[in-house]
Amino acid sequence: MKVLIVDDSRLARAELRRLLEAHPDVEVAGEARNAEEARAQLAAQPVDLLLLDIHMPGETGFELLASLEAAPPVVFTTAYDAHALRAFEVNALDYLLKPVQEARLGAALDKVRAQQPADAPSAAVEAAPVPAPATPLTAQDQVFVKDGERCWFVRLGEVRLFEINGSYTQIYFEQHRPLIPRTLSQLEARLDPKLFFRANRQQIINLNFVEGVEPWFSHSLRLTLRGGEVVEVSRQQSVRFRELLSL
């Protein structure tokens, strides 16, 4: 497991390094003193976890996340508990108060391990090259979503539907429906075609959330998603859907 430590305090970074030495499967991939340095390191290599301070000179930890198109799992480390609610609103795995306790850090690392696919090597074992911007994002990738004053840190595999809503795209995950300033074409270029399917001009669906399929007008199909949404697949895309899912 590769970890990037982001904290403006040298002593805090050194203490986290010391605590991580107790975990043989963890490798400190680097340290950053601020959001700018963190972005540069994330662009240079993939990591499995961000240990991220909130209050730093310049941008905060939240602002760093908002600037990333995709980010690894995050555990916040901070001397203040005032931002705990906001941290979990962006789906942080954990929120550790300084001085960080060894047991609490171990529990946070266990959460990261539990999320890693059993058959997928971690970045510490297989340091793959950084994907180019056009490389499709996987189901395990997490993206930061902001809609007004609310924000989320959501894994793409949990998104069941992308739908045009005016000049925005609406994202469906859990009970949330935030809007983002992206077109479906922009999203389709980044999404894994093995997981996400363009059903029509208005909607992209997550194939893992298809609960029911029924024939519809003019040889088209109508799909029901877990969550209750009903999607009518265009006639042309219905042909592709049948080919995609046929033996």
Automatic annotation (TrEMBL):
<feature type="domain" description="Response regulatory">
    <location>
        <begin position="2"/>
        <end position="113"/>
    </location>
</feature>
<dbReference type="InterPro" id="IPR007492">
    <property type="entry name" value="LytTR_DNA-bd_dom"/>
</dbReference>
<dbReference type="InterPro" id="IPR046947">
    <property type="entry name" value="LytR-like"/>
</dbReference>
<feature type="modified residue" description="4-aspartylphosphate">
    <location>
        <position position="53"/>
    </location>
</feature>
<keyword id="KW-0597">Phosphoprotein</keyword>
<dbReference type="Pfam" id="PF04397">
    <property type="entry name" value="LytTR"/>
</dbReference>
<dbReference type="Pfam" id="PF00072">
    <property type="entry name" value="Response_reg"/>
</dbReference>
<feature type="domain" description="HTH LytTR-type">
    <location>
        <begin position="145"/>
        <end position="247"/>
    </location>
</feature>
<dbReference type="InterPro" id="IPR011006">
    <property type="entry name" value="CheY-like_superfamily"/>
</dbReference>
<dbReference type="InterPro" id="IPR001789">
    <property type="entry name" value="Sig_transdc_resp-reg_receiver"/>
</dbReference>
<protein>
    <submittedName>
        <fullName>Response regulator transcription factor</fullName>
    </submittedName>
</protein>
